[in-house]
Amino acid sequence: HAAEAHRTDLMTITRYVLNEQSKHPESRGDFTILLNHIVLGCKFVCSAVNKAGLAKLIGLAGETNVQGEEQKKLDVLSNEVFIKALVSSGRTCILVSEEDEEATFVEPSKRGRYCVVFDPLDGSSNIDCGVSIGTIFGIYMIKEGGEPKLEDVLQPGKNMLAAGYCMYGSSCTLVLSTGSGVNGFTLDPSLGEFILTHPDIKIPKKGKKYSVNEGNAKNWDGPTAKYVEKCKFPKDGSPAKSLRYIGSMVADVHRTLLYGGIFLYPADKKSPNGKLRVLYEVFPMSFLMEEAGGQAFTGKQRALDLVPKQIHERSPIFLGSYDDVEEIKALYAAEEQ
Ligand code: P6P
């Protein structure tokens, strides 16, 4: 009967969030409404990504985004969808998107207490070859009442109330944490609902895979070079780690979360702060890793302790299995001495 009950007692993401809300009797349901609008955005992008090949949505839009990268039509579409969904929720006051140079301050009549930072379609350079891509998001509460200010989105990642990603691949999987563990939901297209498929995800304490762009090896600093060398030629006779690198952060992080191991985007001589963006790549993934029992390190400090100064600033990042990140922390600490 348990299996039967499981099949008929569908735990959807909406029910899950409502359950979480019921733990906070004082809450007015705003957070639930906000998350429902994020979920709506993910469903729309999932459908657009799946049709992209057919609908000729791929291919360059001819514009370039603030990062100076060729903007593909799906980028433009996804960004617009999320901005509109978040504003229409009536629960947000500041939005930061990877696609927009400036933060969006929501008009007063539609304002709420939450700030959302997001990358609407991370890894989009992989769209044309069918590699999994994804939406990454993080949610802050505005610091104090009154006029929303840029400082409200320049908070350390540890102040996030929730973070998650939606991966558009062979299936559409939304991984979410609201601060009490990590849960994975898979879209059932026939229902149009995200169903709980990965309850209470915990990352293995140690993994057998490392994930880094080896093409940057000539520019790595000492500790990173030493760590990768150790992965390939372990001194203690343990087996070498396997290299798995997709080049799409959501896909690389999702595999690391489920199978264990470590994902690295280090600083290098060309880019002293690495490549990944603090607010909407490093923080949400670090939040999830810590909630799943892993950890996230910048080379200098715990990633979630970082206080950003600009909304598009970058940071090196090492995240994944607790013991694996511990090893690279020790190499950076030794470098300090
Ligand atoms: P590289 C994709 O463009 C992205 O922003 C992340 O999704 C991914 O982890 C990283 O860049 C890949 O960068 O330099 O290895 O191609």
UniProtKB/TrEMBL annotation:
Which GO molecular function, any one, fits this protein according to its record?
metal ion binding
Q: Which GO terms describe its cellular component?
A: cytosol
- Per its UniProt entry, which superkingdom is the organism in? Eukaryota
Where mainly located?
Answer: cytoplasm
Indicate yes or no for the key word Hydrolase.
yes
Gene3D superfamilies linked? 3.40.190.80, Fructose-1,6-Bisphosphatase, subunit A, domain 1
Q: Which reaction does it catalyse?
A: beta-D-fructose 1,6-bisphosphate + H2O = beta-D-fructose 6-phosphate + phosphate
Matching entries from InterPro entries are given as:
FBPase_C_dom, FBPase_class-1, FBPase_N, FBPtase, Fructose_bisphosphatase_AS
GO process terms (BP): fructose 1,6-bisphosphate metabolic process; fructose 6-phosphate metabolic process; fructose metabolic process; gluconeogenesis; photosynthesis; sucrose biosynthetic process
Q: Which UniProt keywords apply?
A: Carbohydrate metabolism, Cytoplasm, Hydrolase, Magnesium, Metal-binding
Q: What does the record give as cofactor?
A: Mg(2+)
Entry's localization field: Cytoplasm
> Per the UniProt record, which residue ranges are transmembrane?
none
Q: Where is the Fructose-1-6-bisphosphatase class I N-terminal domain?
A: 11-199
User: What Pfam families would the database entry show?
Assistant: FBPase, FBPase_C
* Enzyme nomenclature, EC number: 3.1.3.11
Tell me the ranges covered by the Fructose-1-6-bisphosphatase class 1 C-terminal domain, including all copies.
203-332
Family affiliation: Belongs to the FBPase class 1 family.
- Name recorded for this polypeptide: Fructose-1,6-bisphosphatase, cytosolic
Record organism:
Sesamum angolense
